[in-house]
Amino acid sequence: MKKTTLLIVFNIAILLFAFAQDAAQKWKLPLKGKVLWQKVTPFGTLVVSTSDYLIGIDPEKGTIAWQLDAFANTPEERYQVVPNTPYVALVTDGKNPEHVIIDVSTGKILCNSKEEGILGVFNRTILSGSGNILIYGINGKLQGLLVLFDVKTGKKIWEVNNPFGKGLFGIAKIETNIINDKGFILFGTTKEIFKIDEKTGNLAWKTEVQSPKGFTMVTNTTPKIIISAAEPVIYFTKDNFIAAHDINTGKPVWADIPKLNGPVDKIIYQQQGFIMTNAVDPNNNMNPFRINLYNYKTGKGVWDEKGIKMDGALYQYKFWKDGLVIAMESKKGRYYINQINLSNGQMKFKNSLKVDGELKNMYMVPKGLMYITSNQIDIIDVESGKTIFPTSIEAKKDGSLLTAIKGDFLYAYSTTDKLIYEINSVKGEYRQLTPQEINIEGKKEIVETFELRPNGLAAISNQNINLYDFTGKELYHTYVPAPEISRLAKIYYSTAAFVGEFNKAASEADAAKIQTYANQEEAGFGKDLLNAVAQAEKAKAQQYGSMAAEAKARLRKRFEATASAGNFIFMLTTLENKSLGLSKTYGIVKVNKADGKIVQKISFDKDKEPKYEIDDLAGLIFYASPDKEIICFKF
Q: Are 577 and 21 in contact, with CB atoms under 8 Å apart?
């Protein structure tokens, strides 16, 4: 029976390859020196490091767009993508790293810290809105140096020596995050907050952080500054306390400073005040988790002097009528759910509901709270605290649940029973969609991606792709045998991997604004997610506005290509088809998710460990051949 199955699979593979076309070679570019590494940037430029130079290649023309000889032999670990920008940074190791920021669309060096007299960089920030680059470090005289670079020209706009004072004690580090707000830059040390005019570098004000009375817990946490979403106030959080200062003058706002049982963790803004929770103190994990509501004007606790005990750190939350549904993560990694009355802070249920697995998400639906963990899906009746499914949808501890959303329906795939389930979020019901476990071929093959397609649901592993319609009928199953090479490279690039480059950096100020919008939500499946995404897009738009015209054009073109790119998947395989005259070679095939057919293929001949990069948005593969050249194939 096993031999028959293998024969059928082999014959299917022959048929698939027989109708597949070879990917067209778009261009070939000889290079100087040995190729060390290559990277496709979020903007499409191919950056290549060789023993002779660092270059940027125009992927459409196959020509060298820019060349930097001074950066030959650049190690791959120095390369960093600067989120939300068309830039990359080359950063050296050590206590006093050097930073070189390059616009990959033009090859222009926007900042070279060493050449500008900055011997070591402590902080680097791309300011939202203007996109200018703020660097703080030390100069040759061991003085603190704060410099702002113009992102358009690469020249210094201004520099400030000894921003924290003269002498060795003046070389303080910027310990907090850096916020750009309405033409001003805000940051802090462990004891002071500074507000600087972005245009001139002049100091608007500096203030000593208001300290709490009595004993202050010392923790291994990083201080933060947060612009209030409700008041003209800047909050400073450090250790187990929070201070409030007027954003226009820097003066303290509260007479007394509230203290928590542990490091400040989450802050939730809402009409009655702000809700604050504490995290685990690495030095003292005996203190309980607490949550409290604080008055904006006075900073005093409203619910309780010490706060309300929780079963763990606040992990997620959703507003529901007059309450706040919270998910908590205990010190042992277990998850609990309860509901807090916003008027008095009382927990609705005496014993919080424990859920199995790692909590991934939760949504308010007509029947209550739908929660999704790595191993369990169910709906909680928020009035009774009981689950409403007869039995939860589950996966074993060594398995997982993968989900996709379509309107009011949530679809889940369990890697344990290999079944697909359909959950109706309005009715609070679910059904087994597929009549039997899905077909997965190959050793150690596990579905890792489960996604919504226009005509159904796709379950994808390294070498398999299955598509089912919304009635549970299998539309196709495609299996591409894995190559027998020493290091199997996993080839699955989704549009999310590209878009993710633009969503990595969200400032505390942006996060606070997201909270404000989330507080206005109405109960509805997926509405929370949409609100959060909308705010992330606004933050991204600020950076987008500061980009050069060429970079904008490239980004726009790549976003327009995302819909097409998402329709295909690339798989590494062995290309062997005697009827086509192919001997055993190694290569990549492109599979159409709509019908499961292999539409194109690329052969790497006998190169068992090929160096290649895939740009799925542009439909290009860049292969660094052993002959010191880059070959581009068009899919």
A: no
- Note the Cα 58 to chain centre separation in Å: 27
| pLDDT of the residue at 359 | 92
Task: Find out whether 235 and 511 touch, Cβ atoms under 8 Å.
Answer: no
Q: 252: how many CB neighbours lie within 10 A of its CB?
A: 17
Q: What is the structure's pLDDT at 576?
A: 63
Q: Which residue has the higher pLDDT, 239 or 344?
A: 344
- Establish how many alpha carbons lie within 13 A of residue 164's alpha carbon, considering only the half-sphere containing its beta carbon: 25
Separation of alpha carbons 47 and 41, rounded Å = 7
Confidence (pLDDT) at 606: 64
Q: 81, 41, 73: which is closest to 59 by C-alpha?
A: 41
Distance CA 66, CA 58 (A): 9
- As a whole number, mean pLDDT of residues 359-379 equals 94
Condensed to tens digits (0 to 9), the pLDDT of residues 278-334 reads 887 666 666 789 999 999 999 999 998 888 999 999 999 998 888 899 999 988 889
pLDDT, tens digit (0-9, with 9 covering 90-100), for 448-486: 999 999 999 999 998 899 999 999 999 999 998 876 543
Residue found under tokens 């206590």: 95
> For the purposes of burial, counting CB atoms within 10 Å of the CB of 255, is it exposed (0-12), middle (13-18) or buried (19 or more)?
exposed
Mean pLDDT over residues 348-366, rounded?
92
Q: To the nearest whole number, what is the mean pLDDT of the chain?
A: 80
Tokens of 9: 């699979």
Q: Which residues have CB under 8 Å from 425's CB, separation 6+?
A: 363, 365, 366, 367, 370, 408, 409, 410, 525
Average pLDDT of the residues in 496-508: 30
- Over residues 252-275, mean pLDDT: 86
Could you give the C-alpha distances from 265 to 240, 319, 367, 483, in angstroms and in order? 9, 19, 30, 47
The torsion of the CA quartet 512, 514, 517, 523, rounded to 10 degrees, works out to -120
* CA-to-CA separations, 510 to 247, 535, 614, in angstroms, rounded: 16, 8, 32
Alpha-carbon distance 413 to 400, whole Å?
A: 8
The rounded distance, in Å, linking the Cα atoms of 589 and 479 is 11
**Cβ partners under 8 Å of residue 154, min gap 6:** 108, 109, 110, 111
The token pair at 114 is 């060493």
CB atoms within 10 A of CB 357: 21
Angle at 516 between CA 512 and CA 517, to 5 degrees: 120
Q: Which two tokens stand for residue 489?
A: 């490279």
User: Residue 252 carries which DSSP code?
Assistant: B
CA nearest 231: which of 193, 269, 194, 259?
269
pTM assigned to the model? 0.73
- Quick: pLDDT tens for 432-451: 999 999 999 988 889 999 99
**Spatial distance between the Cα atoms of 354 and 530, rounded to a whole number of angstroms:** 27
Pairing of strands 313-320, 323-329: antiparallel
Q: What's the pLDDT at 615?
A: 84
User: Rounded to an integer, what distance in angstroms lies between the CA atom of residue 605 and that of residue 574?
Assistant: 10
Question: Once rounded to an integer, what is the mean pLDDT over residues 82-90?
Answer: 86
Q: Is 56 helix (H, G, I), strand (E, B) or coil?
A: strand
Sheet holding 108-112, edge to edge: 79-82, 87-91, 99-103, 108-112
Q: How far apart are CA 298 and CA 308, in angstroms?
A: 19
Residues in the chain: 635
> Residue 340: is it exposed, middle or buried by C-beta count within 10 angstroms (0-12/13-18/19+)?
buried
Could you identify the residue written with the tokens 């059928």? 8
